[in-house]
What does this fold into?
Amino acid sequence: MGGGARELAGYLAALAGWVAALAAAVLPQWRQSSYAGDAIITAVGLHEGLWMSCAAQSTGQVQCRLHDSLLSLEVHIQTSRALMIISLLLGFFGIIVSVVGMKCTKVGEEDPVTKSRIAGAGGVLFILSGLCSLAAVSLYATQVTYEFFRESAIPINARYEFGSALFVGWGAASLSLLGGSLLCCSCPTKERRGQQYHRQTQPSTAREYV
It folds into this structure.
């Protein structure tokens, strides 16, 4: 895969990861009521996310309520919120920086070495964004797992298990890490910089001999 194609593939993967991370942060299905156990048919399905909790009736009606107070929330929810916000901010700056540094764009510097370095910086931002998303989702999933097996006195169908937003978050983190890694591969090494310098100086030397 050529350098330009690798950069484009990395940028598209990282962009898709950022959009998926945004969707995961907004979705209220970070954890949902469990359907395990004997009574698998319930009239109300409960969902909770970082910003709101929802109750889905069997008739199809959904009622959502925002979390009342920030300080009264559990620590893992506050931490996941902060990590997802940081992830989205890093990804947003990564999108802007990567556009400037990609070879297929005419924005910013014309020097290919400088543009490759800028694209590599955008890749680093995407990697940091993916790590923040991964940490937020994994922290929340760990807490859900801990509460599911800790509360032995509560029936299984009254506990909470993983919601769909967690899987979206894991996919978003994977895409961001993959895209950022591909963008970082475009950063020139010492050998490549030497080859480019030799190619730039060779025509002028030939003209001097003529």
Q: What stands out?
A: The longest helix spans residues 112-150. Residues 12-27+69-188 form a domain with the Butyryl-CoA Dehydrogenase, subunit A; domain 3 fold (CATH 1.20.140.150). The longest strand covers residues 52-57.
